[in-house]
Amino acid sequence: MTVNFEEAKACLTTYLTQKKLSKTPARYKILEYIYSLDKPFNAEFLHAQLKDSYRLSLATIYNTLTIFLDSNLIVKYHYDGGTSLYYEKATNSAFHHIIICSECGKAREFTDVRLRNTIHARTFKGFKATRHTLTVYGLCSKCSKKQLNK
Ligand SMILES: [Zn+2]
Protein backbone atom coordinates (compact mmCIF):
# COMPACT_ATOMS: atom_id res chain seq x y z
CA MET A 1 0.00 0.00 0.00
CA THR A 2 1.26 3.43 -0.86
CA VAL A 3 0.90 6.36 1.49
CA ASN A 4 -1.26 9.00 -0.11
CA PHE A 5 -0.86 12.71 0.22
CA GLU A 6 -3.67 13.13 2.77
CA GLU A 7 -1.98 10.65 5.13
CA ALA A 8 1.41 12.25 4.56
CA LYS A 9 -0.07 15.66 5.29
CA ALA A 10 -1.54 14.42 8.57
CA CYS A 11 1.86 12.96 9.53
CA LEU A 12 3.56 16.25 8.77
CA THR A 13 1.05 18.22 10.86
CA THR A 14 1.59 15.88 13.81
CA TYR A 15 5.34 16.13 13.45
CA LEU A 16 5.40 19.94 13.16
CA THR A 17 3.12 20.27 16.17
CA GLN A 18 5.27 17.92 18.27
CA LYS A 19 8.46 19.74 17.33
CA LYS A 20 6.82 23.15 17.73
CA LEU A 21 7.73 24.08 14.16
CA SER A 22 5.61 26.41 12.12
CA LYS A 23 3.15 24.94 9.63
CA THR A 24 4.16 27.07 6.68
CA PRO A 25 2.19 26.66 3.44
CA ALA A 26 5.50 26.07 1.60
CA ARG A 27 6.14 22.87 3.57
CA TYR A 28 2.77 21.49 2.53
CA LYS A 29 3.24 22.58 -1.08
CA ILE A 30 6.59 20.82 -1.27
CA LEU A 31 5.13 17.70 0.31
CA GLU A 32 2.22 17.71 -2.12
CA TYR A 33 4.56 18.05 -5.05
CA ILE A 34 6.79 15.22 -3.82
CA TYR A 35 3.79 12.94 -3.38
CA SER A 36 2.68 13.66 -6.93
CA LEU A 37 6.04 12.41 -8.24
CA ASP A 38 6.59 8.76 -9.00
CA LYS A 39 10.35 8.99 -9.30
CA PRO A 40 13.33 9.97 -7.16
CA PHE A 41 14.32 13.61 -7.02
CA ASN A 42 16.96 15.86 -5.53
CA ALA A 43 16.81 19.32 -3.97
CA GLU A 44 17.93 21.11 -7.13
CA PHE A 45 15.18 19.44 -9.13
CA LEU A 46 12.52 20.49 -6.60
CA HIS A 47 13.89 23.99 -6.58
CA ALA A 48 13.76 24.26 -10.37
CA GLN A 49 10.18 22.95 -10.41
CA LEU A 50 8.77 25.01 -7.55
CA LYS A 51 10.72 28.27 -7.31
CA ASP A 52 8.54 30.24 -9.73
CA SER A 53 5.16 29.23 -8.36
CA TYR A 54 6.06 29.42 -4.67
CA ARG A 55 9.15 31.66 -4.45
CA LEU A 56 11.17 29.05 -2.61
CA SER A 57 14.88 29.29 -2.04
CA LEU A 58 17.15 26.27 -2.28
CA ALA A 59 17.84 26.70 1.44
CA THR A 60 14.11 26.35 2.19
CA ILE A 61 13.99 23.18 0.10
CA TYR A 62 16.96 21.67 1.96
CA ASN A 63 15.49 22.68 5.30
CA THR A 64 12.14 21.13 4.37
CA LEU A 65 13.72 17.91 3.10
CA THR A 66 15.46 17.54 6.46
CA ILE A 67 12.08 17.82 8.19
CA PHE A 68 10.55 15.25 5.83
CA LEU A 69 13.44 12.85 6.43
CA ASP A 70 13.13 13.26 10.20
CA SER A 71 9.43 12.55 10.04
CA ASN A 72 9.94 9.54 7.72
CA LEU A 73 7.90 11.07 4.92
CA ILE A 74 10.74 10.59 2.48
CA VAL A 75 13.74 8.32 2.24
CA LYS A 76 17.14 9.14 0.85
CA TYR A 77 19.72 7.12 -0.96
CA HIS A 78 22.98 7.59 -2.78
CA TYR A 79 24.00 6.48 -6.16
CA ASP A 80 27.12 6.89 -8.31
CA GLY A 81 29.27 5.53 -5.52
CA GLY A 82 27.79 7.93 -3.01
CA THR A 83 28.46 11.14 -4.90
CA SER A 84 24.82 11.89 -5.76
CA LEU A 85 22.09 12.12 -3.19
CA TYR A 86 18.52 11.35 -4.12
CA TYR A 87 15.24 11.37 -2.24
CA GLU A 88 11.99 9.57 -2.76
CA LYS A 89 8.63 9.63 -1.03
CA ALA A 90 8.33 6.94 1.59
CA THR A 91 5.82 4.19 1.08
CA ASN A 92 4.40 1.72 3.52
CA SER A 93 5.60 -1.17 1.43
CA ALA A 94 8.10 -3.29 3.30
CA PHE A 95 10.33 -3.63 0.27
CA HIS A 96 11.53 -1.35 -2.40
CA HIS A 97 13.31 -2.38 -5.59
CA ILE A 98 14.50 0.12 -8.13
CA ILE A 99 16.68 0.26 -11.21
CA ILE A 100 18.50 3.50 -11.73
CA CYS A 101 20.57 4.90 -14.59
CA SER A 102 23.89 6.05 -13.20
CA GLU A 103 24.30 8.47 -16.08
CA CYS A 104 21.03 10.50 -16.03
CA GLY A 105 19.49 9.34 -12.75
CA LYS A 106 16.28 8.03 -14.29
CA ALA A 107 14.80 5.45 -11.95
CA ARG A 108 12.03 2.90 -12.13
CA GLU A 109 10.52 0.64 -9.54
CA PHE A 110 10.20 -3.06 -10.16
CA THR A 111 8.52 -5.90 -8.35
CA ASP A 112 9.99 -9.35 -7.97
CA VAL A 113 8.13 -11.47 -5.47
CA ARG A 114 10.69 -14.28 -5.54
CA LEU A 115 13.50 -11.86 -4.80
CA ARG A 116 11.47 -10.24 -2.02
CA ASN A 117 10.73 -13.59 -0.38
CA THR A 118 14.38 -14.64 -0.61
CA ILE A 119 15.50 -11.51 1.21
CA HIS A 120 12.68 -11.76 3.76
CA ALA A 121 13.63 -15.36 4.53
CA ARG A 122 17.19 -14.34 5.33
CA THR A 123 17.88 -14.03 9.04
CA PHE A 124 20.63 -11.96 10.61
CA LYS A 125 22.23 -12.74 13.95
CA GLY A 126 21.24 -10.15 16.56
CA PHE A 127 19.23 -8.18 14.05
CA LYS A 128 15.60 -8.09 13.10
CA ALA A 129 15.02 -7.01 9.52
CA THR A 130 11.87 -4.96 8.94
CA ARG A 131 12.20 -3.73 5.38
CA HIS A 132 14.72 -3.55 2.59
CA THR A 133 15.65 -1.57 -0.45
CA LEU A 134 17.48 -2.87 -3.47
CA THR A 135 19.00 -0.68 -6.14
CA VAL A 136 20.27 -1.98 -9.46
CA TYR A 137 22.59 0.46 -11.22
CA GLY A 138 23.20 0.63 -14.90
CA LEU A 139 22.56 2.57 -18.08
CA CYS A 140 19.16 3.33 -19.53
CA SER A 141 18.69 2.73 -23.26
CA LYS A 142 19.08 6.43 -24.09
CA CYS A 143 22.37 6.75 -22.21
CA SER A 144 23.80 3.50 -23.53
CA LYS A 145 23.03 4.66 -27.09
CA LYS A 146 24.80 7.95 -26.37
CA GLN A 147 27.85 6.09 -25.11
CA LEU A 148 27.97 3.97 -28.25
CA ASN A 149 27.93 7.09 -30.41
CA LYS A 150 30.85 8.69 -28.58
ZN1 LIG B 1 20.11 7.35 -18.54
Query: How many domains would you count in the coordinates?
Result: 2
Helix share, percent: 40-55%
The CATH homology group name of the largest domain:
Winged helix-like DNA-binding domain superfamily/Winged helix DNA-binding domain
The profile of the biggest β sheet is: 3 strands, mixed
Number of separate helices: 6
Elements, N to C (H/E): HHHHEEEEHEH
What are the segments in which pLDDT stays under 50 over at least 5 consecutive residues?
none
Q: What is the CATH class of the largest domain?
A: Mainly Alpha
- Label the structural class: alpha+beta
Estimate what percentage of residues fall within beta strands: 15-25%
Bound molecules: zinc ion
Give me the count of strands.
5
Strand order of the largest sheet: 4-3-5
CATH architecture of the largest domain: Orthogonal Bundle
Query: What is the rounded Rg?
Result: 17 Å
